[in-house]
Write a structure and sequence with these properties.
- With 93 residues, this protein is an all-alpha fold.
- It has one domain.
- The chain is built from three helices and no strands.
- The longest helix has 20 residues.
- It starts with 15 loop residues before the first helix and ends with a helix.
Length: 93
Amino acid sequence: MPLENRPRLPRIPLSKRNRAVVWALNPMLVTYLEASRDLCETDSILFGAALAVCRIIGAKLPTAGRATRQNSAIPAWKKRIEDRIAKARALIG
């Protein structure tokens, strides 16, 4: 899955149950990580493992993720600056 289409994974709280799930999954990853050829493949393996942990734990995953963000949308910081400029111009005259 390309990096742009991956959903943002939530931080999972530290608990005994969550730690047990991660510890159970870690030995399974060894064979895949040893066979990985490059950094991109290693990244994909680790992302898949993290996604599996989130699903096992029941963490809420965003359905749309970053993939649906429109590139033409104006960022919030830019909109705030433009609003401040408009208010300043209105005060000036």
